[in-house]
Amino acid sequence: MNSSFERYSKQVLFRGMGEERQRLLSEKKVLLCGCGALGTVIADQLTRAGVGHLVVVDRDFVELSNLQRQVLYDERDVEERLPKAVAAAEKLSRINSSITIGPIVADIDAGNIESLAQDCDLILDGTDNFEVRFLINDVSLELGIPWIYTGCIGSHGQVMPIFPGETACLRCLMNDVPEPGSTETCDTAGVLGPAVNIIASYETVLALKILSEQKELVPPVMTVIDVWEGSWREMKLGSLRDQSDCPACMHGKRDWLRGGRGSQSTVLCGRNAVQVIPEQKRSLSLDDLHSKLSTSGSVTQNPYLLKFSPTESDHEFTIFKDGRAIIQGTDDLAEARSLYSRYIGG
To answer: What is the pTM of this model?
Structure first.
């Protein structure tokens, strides 16, 4: 066995891999969108499996409530208020120092997703946000990169591999983002940790097949798994693309990628918090902002973000260098934008 593959010896012995497939895996680059519950499991397993280059993008920071299901983080990450992408990369680099891990603290949007996806062999869904998923779908079709749609809520989840120009895409399955209140959320149904692990693990299995150039082993189905009920079913999607007359994969529309769709503010699931994004991209000096806000409340910071608690309210701001802010203590978009304008400006 190639000495560089010694750490993967048990994986190489598996009949579906072998040394040649392991070598192919070591040459591949993956974009992981989101490193929360699903994303941490995916990142951990791909790192241990030996994917050559893993780009981890996440907009958020680690909180105590994450630890129930987000397997890469611990209480020290909470205390240090580390961005998830940074905390994940630190753990992953200690697991496997022979691969490249690129952490990016950013909100995925129409302005950056093409550059993030360039030269990638696969895009993986670790998000909890349908607007981002439709954006991933658009860039997948635009650049011809396969991706895997995955979601998990309560005790169940679904996994759907998408090959541009070959299989049904996300917009074939659903023409638009679900209406508010029309689907379960983590606020209404909660999330069971074992469900996350099983759904994400199945997504990783499909990813390993694709990255080792065995996509013929990936059927055009959406797999729906409920770990509490102990059920597994497959929805066949082979003819969906032709039947749907999809505006995205059949007619070339890229409504999310071209910036026509999407929001500057997002209610964060289960957090009583809103993320506010300035309309114009900006680069903040956290030191200058610290000085500005210190007269209005309690301020702490690390190299990645600043935490601010105003004296006159019960809200808490987490402000990033790119101008984004997560405002806790409200799920009202208008109130969050007003608080942002009051304390940060713009």
So the answer is: 0.88
